[in-house]
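Incident log entry.

Two folding requests arrived from the same account within the same minute. Monitoring flagged them as a possible duplicate submission, but the sequences differ. Recording both here for audit purposes.

Request one:
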Amino acid sequence: MRDLMPRGPSRRPSAGFTLIEVLVAVSMALLLMTAVYSAIDMHWRYQSAGQLELQRGQVARAVYARLSIDIRSVQFSPPDPEEAELEDEEAADQEALDDVDADELLQTQSLGVTGTSTRLTLHISKPVPPRMFSLNSSDDDEFVLLESEQRSVTWFLADLAGGELEGLAASRFAGDQAIVAAGLISNSSALDGPLGLARSEVDRLAGTIDASAEDEASLAQAAEFLAPEINSLYFRYFDGVDWRDEWNSQALGSIPLAIEIVIGFVPPVPDDPLQAVAPDAIPTTYRFVVALPVAEAVVSEDDF
């Protein structure tokens, strides 16, 4: 057979990559991929931390706005000193009790602010919307008021381990299928601590001496579940000189000049990746102070 291949100098085979070069290239690729992954993971964590901070800030502002409306709607009239002296007289007291109905006396009392470090009760005057009026069946020209503008508002934490109101409200929320289905409450959260922030509003004029609208059971039944993210709540009351942990307008004869509210959010778990990256970026507590413009400083005997 004839050799069809052209004759000439023999070709040298092309040189390939050595094993060391391949290992170096693979190592550099792995380092590059690790750096890219770390950058993406860091970016995701900081983005998640920012979203969590934004969400908590929105919840805190919403709570502040609603609390501010309630606090600034407080209605209180200090007792008249002349009437107080008159009540000290036995004859005048007996005559007054004979002429005043017990239910009317309860409804006309101006209780102002009553609170502790963990619970705040405000007696407010709230405009009645048109839907609260109804036509009287006997007279079409007469309107009947279904709800009054005298309201009692209580802020507290729903907690099975708390007081009677806190425990009754927590039991009601834990048994509410809509709240459980929404993922706001888990089976374990009811045992670990407070379930979240709650607010109860009742009509004061709906109650009587024998069955007050502001008893623990009525308040718990009327409570609404606001913020499961909040697991601590603290109040203080400013009398013009010092901050107090408790307040009773009936005893002090005044409402506080300002009320301090501190809310705390559920702390992260120890191995939370967001806290590991940005431990100080996500606030756990928010503090705000609401002033009562119509309040007057409390003057006690110790001030003289």
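Request two (distinct sequence, not a duplicate):
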Amino acid sequence: MIISALRRAFAGTATTVVMAGITVLTPPSLGAVGTAAAANCPDIEVTFARGTSEDPGLGRVGGAFVNQLRNKVGGRSVGAYAVVYPASYDFLAAADGANDASAHIQWMAENCPGTRQVLGGYSQGAAVMDVIGAIPVPGIGFNNPLPPEAAGHVAGIAVFGNPSAKLGLPLTASPVWGGKVIDLCNAGDPICQTDGQSVPAHKSYAGGPTNEAANFVAGLL
């Protein structure tokens, strides 16, 4: 299961893989988002889940990804929603992030149907997106699955340092989402590789990898 993948991925690294969180955008609460006028809908909306121990917000990787994507979409407006969840070492709470992300994705689809949605996550945040994508099964406590029609609103998904990749189940394996996904794992990253031993590799997604992902997603928008 996804939660088991998280536990395996972080085993032995939980005391050292702690990110310095940089909040690039502070999202409104889901309730506040729900009151926004449809006229204010962005052309593109990124829903991103930060990594373990990062401060609330998009996190360092999510912030870099959103900023790089903005430079590649021809002046179209890009909104961003930071998934609300603890991002703690209680990995069962990744399901809380999946429920929150799913609620926001569904709200956007209903209230901003013309907005192209992009999903993303880093480290435990990537596992949040795994839960939504049901790779391999829904996570414990996930009770707000996306309806089938939601797939038509999601243009692309970008995940970084994904724990499920360590089990040979990258999000690209999803029969629903696979063609829309870029699932990046740095060489030596112990969170997404069985033989990875480099904690710095897990911390090094903001920059080249996020730019690669932004190029991939921009090509789908």
